[in-house]
Design a protein that fits this description.
Elements lengths: L6 H16 L8 H4 L3 H23 L9 H21 L22 E3 L5 E3 H5 L21
Antiparallel strand pairs: 1-2
Helix pairs in contact: 1-3, 1-4, 3-4
């Protein structure tokens, strides 16, 4: 009896590879998939499920299905790829370098000038200067976001 081709193993491996190579060129372009790679994780889950089904068929019915040799090899490669992707996305990408020059809580901000909503330059010193009107005291709230690009 001729053994049939075990397509689940190959389809699962291709889904995992698609999940690995599609994040940067496709899904990192959109905020909904860049912040949390849910599409890639779904591709990995579907691929690993197909690999598991293919391996089960290959070992339960070795006389009918192929894949007892290549199945475990592709499964180990897929698991290693998923682990590398998760390590890179969830651990390495979240590591920010130390910044000794970042402002500390309570530290006085250096004077700077930035454009306002109309494009006119506004200096920090002008905003902190005491106002002539008693109803309008001078004050500024600064919010710093430390990004890393």
């Amino acid at each position: 009896m001729k053994r049939s081709w075990n397509w689940r193993i190959w389809a699962g491996f291709l889904l995992v590879v698609a999940g690995l190579v599609s994040f940067v060129p496709v899904f990192a372009q959109f905020p909904a998939t860049r912040d949390f790679p849910w599409v890639n994780l779904l591709l990995f889950a579907a691929g690993l499920a197909l690999l598991g089904l293919g391996l089960a068929k290959a070992y339960r019915h070795p006389e009918r299905y192929r894949g007892r040799v290549i199945g475990p090899i592709l499964s180990v490669l897929s698991l290693a790829g998923v682990a590398f992707f998760c390590f890179g996305i969830f651990y390495v990408a979240r590591q920010l370098p130390a910044s000794a020059a970042a402002p500390q809580v309570g530290q006085k901000a250096p004077d700077f000038t930035l454009p306002d909503g109309d494009g006119k330059p506004v200096a920090l010193a002008d905003l902190l200067a005491p106002s002539t009107s008693a109803a309008k005291p001078g004050g500024v709230l600064l919010i710093f976001y430390r990004g890393h690009w």
